[in-house]
Write a structure and sequence with these properties.
Elements lengths: L1 H20 L2 E7 L10 H13 L3 E6 L10 H7 L4 E4 L23 H10 L2 H11 L4 E9 L5 E3 L13 E3 L2 H9 L3 E3 L3 H10 L4 E2 L4 H6 L8 E4 L7 E8 H6 L2 H37 L2 E4 L2 H21 L1 H24 L7
Parallel strand pairs: 1-2, 1-3, 6-7, 6-8, 9-11
Antiparallel strand pairs: 3-10, 4-10, 5-8, 5-9
Length: about 350
């Protein structure tokens, strides 16, 4: 009896171990350190969600640089050296001009409208098409949605946009193209490289994220003027890239579970940003001596005029940009019928 019992228990343990070993493990690099609030924790939260609901697939999270540097993630996922990456397509602006349209559009849609275009119009189809036509072997899933960002931290007050000329500034995505139009020299630095660059004077100003994230990185120690609104990023979308061969090897149930976990992450990510940034703004002012500044309507018009020049140049340069821009513009024109009628006009508050 003892031997039979032992054999049965051993067989059950072996079966369990066999089932566990059969689970698909996907190594996922992130573009953001897990220590960064909201921005970095979103990737960790996605991993927690998918691992909690799936018995067949498991993700393992890695911080930037542990597997590959942030700006090399797309190539690494495409060639299969990394299974997956959590990022935003704006990082690939230098590789594909259309990439920024699926991340953050200057003077573009806020989160609700952006999600509507991507999930219920042609956005996601065009997003995947962009990667396919540029030869990247990846499958893209929308996996995060971000509240608007601040538009920059400056060491000196900007009294007119002429003050921007000659500045060296860290800037992201399509917004960087606009700043260059206005005489700013831009560079795309990772989170951990920004503060040292500000400190040694390699850059004069920076934009990066929302107030709570930027405070975590200590920008207020050097640049005391924080400018709003984030005209360059009214909404920011985040992607989960999975090597297409690995994606196609997964069964349909596992694919759906990944999509569901990402959909939950979209809601979680956006809500947390909306909840936690106003206390961070108050703390920045009251405890760190930050001065909050707002661009004037006239200055915003200048930014927008520069942006529209960038649009025309990119349309002429890149067929995919022109196609995606036309589709987004058509959707936005229709969306006005809803937006202009259903939402309270801004002056009410």
């Amino acid at each position: 009896m003892i031997n039979k019992t032992f054999t049965a228990v051993s067989a059950a343990a072996f079966a369990f171990a066999g089932a566990a070993s059969a689970q698909e493990l996907l190594e996922m690099t992130s573009g953001y350190s897990k220590n960064l609030p909201i921005l970095g924790t979103a990737a960790v939260n996605f991993v927690d969600k998918i691992n909690a609901i799936s018995e067949d697939v498991e993700f393992e999270h890695f911080d930037p640089g542990e597997l590959v540097p942030s700006l090399e993630m797309l190539d690494a996922v495409s060639n299969g050296s990394v299974d997956a990456a959590y990022s935003t397509s704006g990082y690939w602006q230098g590789k594909m001009p259309a990439a920024g349209l699926f991340a953050a559009v200057p003077f573009g849609p806020e989160p609700g409208e952006m999600l509507a275009w991507m999930l219920y119009d042609d956005g996601m189809t065009l997003f995947q098409e962009m990667y396919d036509t540029n030869g990247y072997n990846v499958h893209v899933v929308l996996c995060g949605s971000y509240a608007p960002e601040t538009s920059g931290w400056f060491k000196q007050e900007i009294t007119s946009l002429d003050d921007l000329k000659g500045l060296n500034m860290r800037f992201f995505g399509l917004g960087a193209e606009v700043m260059q139009k206005l005489g700013v020299s831009t560079s795309l630095l990772g989170a951990g490289d920004i503060f040292p660059a500000l400190e040694r004077g390699a850059i004069d100003a920076t934009e990066f994220s929302m107030p709570i994230v930027d405070a975590n990185l200590g920008f207020y120690n050097i640049a005391k003027y924080n400018y709003f609104p984030g005209w360059h990023q009214p909404a920011t979308m985040f992607e989960l890239l999975i090597n297409k061969d690995r994606w196609e090897e997964l069964d349909e149930r596992s694919q759906k579970q990944i999509e569901i976990a990402c959909m939950a992450n979209l809601t979680d990510n956006f809500a947390e940003g909306e909840a936690k940034n106003f206390p961070a703004m108050v703390e920045n002012v009251e405890e760190h001596g930050v001065t909050i500044k707002n661009w004037t309507p006239e200055q915003l018009k200048e930014f927008e005029a520069a942006w529209l020049e960038v649009v025309e140049e990119l349309k002429a340069e890149d067929e995919m940009f022109a196609k995606a821009w036309a589709d987004l513009s058509e959707f936005r024109e229709g969306y006005k019928t809803w937006f202009n009628n259903i939402y309270l006009p801004r002056p009410w508050n």
